[in-house]
Amino acid sequence: MSLQASIAVHKRKVRFAFACLAATAALLPAGAMAKEAGTCTPGTALRMSAPESSQGSLLLIEVKSAKPLAEVQGDWGGRSVPFWREVASEANRKALLGVDLEKAPGEYELKVTGQTASGEKISCSASVTVRQGRFATEKLQVGKQFVEPSPEQIKRADEEGQKLRDIFDRVTPERLWDGKFRIPVDGVTTGSNFGRRRILNGNPRSPHSGADLLATTGTPVHATQRGRVVLAEELFFAGNTVVVDHGLGIYTLYGHLSEISVKVGDDLEAGAVLGKVGATGRVTGPHLHWGLTVERARVNPLQLVRLLGNSSGTSPRQKSSKHRIN
Ligand SMILES: [Zn+2]
Questions:
Q1: Which of 73, 119, 121, 256 is the S-S candidate for 239 at Cβ 3.0 to 4.6 Å?
Q2: pTM given for the model
Q3: Structural domain harbouring 152
């Protein structure tokens, strides 16, 4: 969503970023849980989907107990980590740890505490390493009119940025999703440009916080999972935008839409059509800007599909969804 000025080298960079993402994907087996991590009270184990993380990535955490659990909560560097329970797994809880794409590299302590159904306290702690993300950087010289929006445009963009941050700050305590997450455009299996840093005329811009999915104008855009529409309007940078709250601090954003077909307050089923691909806002051509925020951390949305979903977008469950909104 950073300033999408008119740029001739765009296509070449897209291909470069695509290659980087493809390499990352190969290193991350879908949904696999690494060995036990950290130290826990006896009878409890902590597992993470990867032994360490990097800027803009997502970790799946699992707490397993020998006894049924009543409650589990987490704290990672002063940020709460909400856990959820899957059906028929009383002794097991899961959580997503989002690593913001600008989080300072280093070691961060993860603390998990809770209680079994019989009232015994459990706890785990682990040190989670955050490594520097490997993102493409573009240095560009462009006409001033593309770099510097007018004072009114800056004011508008700032207000909209604040509005989005206020939305992402609110954590809906229930899990609204149920099932697998999918890539929001049929037939698209990957995206590009996540985390890309752009330096325009020597001035660094904020990093690109979503994945760009290439598709033609008018292609239906599907909700990645169940959730509630919390924003559906035209924004300065992202154009026609929809934000879906999936609960537990997880939000997905869909930008540059040619049409929005939902409104704030709508409850969407997994795979419901929420709009169509377009080129509204500051863009050079039609694509879907897909963003993911987990507990305020801006992370690569494709990792959500890798950890908790299927990449084809055509699972039988989603096909049978009855309450599509068109
Ligand atoms: Zn984008």
A1: 256
A2: 0.84
A3: 137-307
